[in-house]
Write a structure and sequence with these properties.
It is built from three helices and no strands. It has helices at 3-18, 24-34, 39-49.
Length: 53
């Protein structure tokens, strides 16, 4: 896993820890832009946080 994905997961997890009711889709969108993720990486985050795959 590359650094941008690790940073994105850390970011999303940290935000959810502070605010468990935060919108996961908005956090994924924000992380995707902030860490310059490609569509496959964003899809991985959706699977991990929203679909729990």
């Amino acid at each position: 896993m590359d650094k941008s994905m690790e940073d994105a997961i850390r970011f999303i997890s940290g935000e959810l820890k502070e605010n468990p009711n935060a919108s996961k889709s908005k956090l994924i969108e924000e992380a995707s832009q902030k860490f310059d993720l490609d569509p496959k990486q964003a899809e991985f985050l959706v699977n991990k946080y929203i679909l729990n795959v």
